[in-house]
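Researcher: Sequence recovery benchmark, item below. Answer with residues only.
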């Protein structure tokens, strides 16, 4: 089965899996991960989208399900050199997770599938709230329904944060890697205490990845966060080279 066919099958599953719990979620439609045409078998999952109801109010049900794809069209692909500015997974868009993957695992991040472990979001007033157990359990159930289409193609699942790790607990330990949460709120206070030059000195793999991905020439925001998070990934994932 080709990549486009996998995308279509996943979308068909999600179309029948609107949120059915008691939690007031922002958007009831779940969404499929972005799977590039040249997928390398790595699935990267962050935790959940930080969105408001207005974010997708003008989109159809089907567009919400394929919301991570360019122009909300599952037949389209992002440029293979990244980053993906419309992906709606913030730590991917700002380069934080891609740099970490390149530095720690020496792979091309633009060939990875990307999504969120939890398919739904909730808010309290203007603030985003973490997924509750009901949301996490329903997300896990949906992943299990999609897994027959994905599992045989996956070589590694990279979970960014403890919520992602807990939802994906059905994945065998040999295939699952854990990184800490990549939230700007968490990274900003720490990364501001360090200089990029010192981090590059002690983590040459991060400097190499930074240069190879062209981050020194890019206009990406929060570069220092990305550098610090990549150092964490190199330290945390030693021994797990793909």
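Model:
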């Amino acid at each position: 089965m080709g990549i486009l066919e996998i995308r279509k099958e996943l979308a068909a599953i999600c179309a029948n899996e609107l949120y059915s719990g008691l939690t007031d979620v922002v958007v009831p439609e779940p969404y499929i991960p972005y799977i590039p045409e040249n997928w390398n078998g790595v699935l990267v999952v962050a935790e959940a989208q930080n969105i408001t109801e207005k974010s997708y109010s003008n989109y159809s049900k089907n567009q919400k399900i394929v919301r991570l794809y360019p122009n909300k069209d599952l037949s389209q692909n992002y440029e293979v050199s990244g980053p993906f500015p419309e992906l709606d997974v913030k730590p991917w868009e700002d380069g934080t997770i891609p740099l970490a993957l390149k530095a720690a695992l020496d792979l091309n991040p633009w060939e990875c599938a990307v999504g969120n472990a939890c398919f739904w979001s909730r808010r309290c007033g203007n603030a985003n709230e973490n997924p509750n157990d009901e949301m996490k359990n329903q997300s896990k159930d949906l992943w299990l329904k999609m897994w027959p289409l994905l599992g045989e193609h996956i070589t590694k699942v990279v979970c960014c944060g403890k919520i992602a790790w807990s939802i994906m607990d059905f994945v065998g330990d040999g295939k699952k890697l854990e990184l800490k949460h990549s939230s700007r709120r968490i990274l900003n206070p720490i990364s501001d205490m360090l200089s990029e030059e010192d981090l590059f000195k002690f983590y040459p793999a991060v400097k190499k990845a930074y240069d190879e991905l062209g981050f020194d020439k890019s206009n990406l925001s929060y570069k220092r966060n990305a550098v610090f998070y990549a150092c964490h990934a190199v330290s945390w994932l030693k021994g797990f080279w793909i």
